[in-house]
Each structure stands twice: as C-alpha cells, then as structure tokens.
C-alpha cells in the first residue's frame, strides 16, 4: 500500500547546470524538494516509484539512464541501481521504456542529489492523454507492488500563468493551480480525481495525469495527511511541492 508520497515540479531548470545564471531563482523549490524526499525516506518504503509525464504510459526499470544534453548540458543521470532493462522494459501497454523522459530525469537528478538509498527505485511514465479512470487504475496497481510503496510524483501546474509564460496568460490558470495546490496540500484525493483532463490540456498542465495516479494509489490509505511545502510560478508556470505521509 501507499505509505508516503512527494509531489515535485519537473522543469529541467530545476537542475542548476541547466538553469545556469538563473539557478538561484529556483533555490526555494530545490530546498522544498529536498525536504519532500526526506519525508519519503522517513517512511522507510520497500519500493519507490517515480511517476511523471511521458510520451506514453510505460515502465522505466531501475538503472534507466536519462540526459540533459538536449538542453545543452553534458549531464547524465540514472534512475536508481540496475541495468536499465536491457530488454527494453516494456510497460503495461507494451511500450518500451527507453531513455528517461525529462520529467523522470529531473526526478532521478533529485534522488541522486539527495543520495537516495532508502529503497529500490523504478519509474513509470504516464501519457498526457491517459484518461482519469485509467490513471486511477495505474495508481492502484502501483500501490499494490509492495507492502510499503512510496511515490515521487513529478509534474508542473499550468504554463499559462503570466503574459510571458510559455502558453501566454490564461485567466483560468491561477484558480486551476490554486485548487491543485490545495488538494496536494491536504491529500484531497477526491479533488485530484475530479481534475478536468481537457482543461488541464488547454492550460498546459503536465502534472494532471501523474497527480491522478497518486489519487488512485492513495485509495487504500485514508490515514494520509498532506503538507504544501512550496507554491510559486516564477516563469509563469506553476511549481508546487507537497508531501503525503
């Protein structure tokens, strides 16, 4: 069952080498992510699954590699220990794992930065178009993988928070993100289940599907309480950090 979860943003800019001169602008978010991972470690899970946005719904086995070379940085990461699934690591829908997508690569970087050694680590990429019911089913499946499962859930809020945001300004973005922050901060699974997938897509929210996976994983544990550690939109994109334990 799910014993703990951390929700973290997944912009490559979270990695100082990628952000370069702008790195200090996300220092608070990095510190909150470090604190969130501490909550996961304190829960002493048997398995940690990193869940994040992906091109399709697929597994990324322990040891899968990722890279930030596409962002002009000679930096590679590895998701836990393992061989990375030399056979391709096909997921539940038959899609091979391959290299880590950027969201899971950021998660792997966070784990490496904090020296994670608390439990085996695996990754699960979630497609942006995965329907809410399918996300909930994914979460229930992941929660049943071990007696004590923890999730590191990577995802951003709306990219339409300001005029200079990647998706320009949309007046619906701030209230949408505010409800997500409230739900993450209070472990409100019903609110996460109710997120509108179509509106999330219009507002360029990368975290909708991963957060609904979290809601599904938490269904068997009504004793989880939430804490919101960070909520900001420095580049017109919602970055939230929260823990459930």
TrEMBL record:
CDD domains: ED_3B_N_AMMECR1. This is Class III extradiol dioxygenase subunit B-like domain-containing protein. It comes from Streptomyces lusitanus.
């Amino acid at each position: 069952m799910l014993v703990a979860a951390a929700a973290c943003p997944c912009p490559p800019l979270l990695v100082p080498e990628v952000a370069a001169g702008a790195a200090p602008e996300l220092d608070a978010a990095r510190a909150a992510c470090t604190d969130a991972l501490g909550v996961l470690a304190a829960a002493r899970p048997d398995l940690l699954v990193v869940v994040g946005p992906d091109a399709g719904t697929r597994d990324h086995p322990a040891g899968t590699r990722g890279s930030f070379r596409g962002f002009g940085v000679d930096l590679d990461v590895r998701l836990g220990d393992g061989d990375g699934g030399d056979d391709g690591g096909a997921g539940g829908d038959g899609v091979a794992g391959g290299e880590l997508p950027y969201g899971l690569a950021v998660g792997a970087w966070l784990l490496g930065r904090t020296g994670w050694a608390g439990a085996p680590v695996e990754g699960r990429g979630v497609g942006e178009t995965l329907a809410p019911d399918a996300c909930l089913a994914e979460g229930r499946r992941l929660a049943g993988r071990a007696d004590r499962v923890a999730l590191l859930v990577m995802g951003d809020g709306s990219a339409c928070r300001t005029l200079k945001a990647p998706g320009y300004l949309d007046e619906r973005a701030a209230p949408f993100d505010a409800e997500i922050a409230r739900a993450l901060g209070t472990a409100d699974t019903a609110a996460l289940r109710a997120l509108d997938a179509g509106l999330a897509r219009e507002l360029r929210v990368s975290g909708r599907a991963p957060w609904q996976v979290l809601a599904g994983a938490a269904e068997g544990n009504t004793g989880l309480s939430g804490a919101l550690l960070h909520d900001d939109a420095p580049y017109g994109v919602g970055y939230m950090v929260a823990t459930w334990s």
